[in-house]
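input
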Amino acid sequence: MMRPLGKKHVPRGQAGFSLIEVLVGMIMGLITILIIFQVFAVFEGQKRTTGSTNDTQMNTSQAMMLIERDVRSAGYGFGVAGGIGCKVNASFNGSAFSFYLAPLTINQGSGVQADTINIMSSTNDAFSVPARITVDHPPQATNFFLDSTEGMNVGDILIAYEPGKDCTMLQITSIPNGNIQVLHQNTSPWDPPGGSNIFPQPDGYTATGGAMLFNMGSFINRTYSIAGSAVLGGLSLAELNTTNNTTTNMTLVDTIVNLQAQYGKDTDGNGTVDTWDAVTPTTNAGWQQVMAMRFALAARSSLFEKAVVTASGTAAWAGGGIALTLKPDGSAMPDWDHYRYTVMQTVVPLRNMIWRQ
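output
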């Protein structure tokens, strides 16, 4: 028996989705995807912030270590305590100049701008005691007669010192056999003919006046400052090359934007720092009081945040405040508060000054 023609019966459990059900499903899927992407965006933002902050902290720690290492060695090889702070006359290729023999000099920045730190020390691995001058050395002489040349080598930089006189920098050109002496002839660019334009007038250095030489090796003269890009900055090092009297500049660590430093002084002579200030000594007695240095570094994160993330433009440190609102060149930075900052500080003893006490 044939069934009558008509509408085919479809079981309800096998029926398809209606258009409304499809649209509702699509909307719910889109909402879910939107939530996932929002969570992912927040997570990535936090990840970038955390990563950038970690990088900034690591950069700051590295910069602190580099400065601290050099500061601890400041003044090494300054064999005569009385010579610290003396004016040193020098000449290179006939051009005379002078500087002050100081283990550490802090040059204060204008206002809240970054300071610079200059460090001097010797590279002489075989530390030698100062050699006393046994024969008077007039200004035109090109050799020093000494009580010993132990530890001295051709090419070493020497500092001549006598109480009450300017110091003089010279270079050993030869050490003859026989008489104990060193020559500083004009075959070296550091030694002008006869030395007449840099040695004390009119009598040069005298044996009866207690004149002596101390050996600096190739002489370290390094200056740390803030440089780098217009936003991120960096710790910059300028280093003197005594071979050709040129200075090499390099950026050691990125993102460092400010440096502040102070001297630690023992003003009462009890061997303990009792005063912190930024006043550079001008006398030997003043330099004898300098026992330590404290400094702080501020580093700026490389990540620009859309929202304001830093409320104050000055961070506190033991020496007062360190500005966060400046570009590395010292000019104002309008959007400084859209970056995160790391500030670290430390105290570094000048061990070569302490050991002289």
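quick obs: The first strand starts at residue 87 and ends at 92.
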